[in-house]
Amino acid sequence: MNATHSFLYNFTMSIVRVAGLDQFRAAAETAKAANAGRLFALFCGSKDPATGNSWCPDCVASEPHIMKEFGKQTDATLIYCTVGERAESVTFEPRCLRLLLLVRH
Fold this sequence. Notes:
Elements: E1 6-10, E2 13-19, H1 21-33, E3 38-44, H2 57-70, E4 76-82, E5 100-103
Parallel strand pairs: 2-4, 3-4
Antiparallel strand pairs: 1-2, 3-5
């Protein structure tokens, strides 16, 4: 896997960090093949290295709450996918890219 992937394990839940749609698809297929439990996806604007925050204000506001709730899950995998810088992202009113998606397999 690419160096941008990172795996954080906490007993029965894990977080896989990826960048972009291709890496997201690869991580989803890997998790599905490994029978990694319930699969969740979170898409957020990339983080500014200087501040550690996403360029997307909705992502900044919602991420702590989403991560807190995900931390209560068991037998689950969260794929955390950054979508790039604002200029690279889809051009529409950025209200918002926040999305929590349950993928059933």
